[in-house]
Amino acid sequence: MHLEQKIQLVFIIALVGLCFYVLSPILSPFLFAALLAYLGDPLVDRLEKRMSRTFAVVSVFIFIIITLILIVMLFIPLISEQLSKLIGKLPGMIDLIEKNILPTIQDKFAAGSAASSDDDLILNTLKSNLSNLSNIASKLFGWISNSSGFVLTLLANIFLVPVVTFYLLRDWDRLIERIHHLIPRRYEAKVSQIAKESDNMLAAFLRGQFMVMNSLGLIYAIGLSVVGLESAILIGFIAGWLSFVPYLGLVVGMGVATALAYFQFGDIMHPLGVIITFVIAQALEGSVLTPRFVGERIGLHPVAVIFAVLAGGQLAGFAGVLLALPVAAVLNVLVSHAHVAYQHSKLYN
């Protein structure tokens, strides 16, 4: 590759990166639609063998809409009820913390010597924040419900994502073919090989991770319901969906569920049941779910996943978080090819 070609390539990459950075505030619905189209394309390709592409896309959309309607009818009212009960219990939980836990902390601070002014400041700040927590939560929900800009943006995204997904899904093969024709012929074979490997890894990782997240959410919800936790379904699925970042769903879900079980029952056995539920779920994830749905050969290292999510959020906000794991999976393929090229280079030898 000549110097002029290298300069042109760097300029194109920099220009694309700048566009993504500048447009990141409005990219979220388009990226989410592209992700849905990518995940739905194999199903549409299968249906296309028996019908036209447009009719196959319409069939997939009808199936998705029926599924979403069933989810809304079955789960949303139940989750909304559990969320309302959880918010209603906040004042009682705060009162219990102030009466039982804060005095214990204060005694710990004051053990052996009189409490310092810094300790008093910490405790007073903690008390004031706890007393204002319910008011802050109610004000936050009120602001969200009364904010016309927020509601309009949310409704626009809800309407925009299905429309963009439909057109992307209908023309997906055509778009991929056009991108393929843009590749310089000299590098077409190598780029196609890398793209094929990246596609295999991305498809297996994203679809497998989606199955693992929902399976974990179902296991958590069932286990916490058996324990008797009132917010079992809400906490269970939130913990399952947060599991795309390694150990985040486990830490957040088990911490919140254990605390709520203690506040609800006031004993040790129910929080212990919560811990047992999460331990069993993690054992099933490691031995059954991840090997079955994701597979060891494409699993990204937990540290790489955490770094990718944080870096994506820092660089491009919510759009970056959506892109983080797909980009990390593709970079994993690129790094493996770069490693092979390095081993055959003059620098290595």
From TrEMBL:
InterPro entries reported in the protein's UniProt record: AI-2E-like
Any one of the GO BP annotations: transmembrane transport
Residue stretches spanning the membrane: 12-39, 51-76, 149-169, 217-238, 244-265, 272-294, 306-335
Membrane topology listed for this record: Multi-pass membrane protein
GO CC term, one of those recorded: plasma membrane
Superkingdom field: Bacteria
Keywords noted in UniProt: Cell membrane, Membrane, Transmembrane, Transmembrane helix, Transport
Localisation per UniProt entry: Cell membrane
Keyword field contains Coiled coil: no
Any one Pfam family match given in the protein's UniProt record, by short name: AI-2E_transport
Stated family: Belongs to the autoinducer-2 exporter (AI-2E) (TC 2.A.86) family.
Protein's recorded name: AI-2E family transporter
Organism: Ostreibacterium oceani
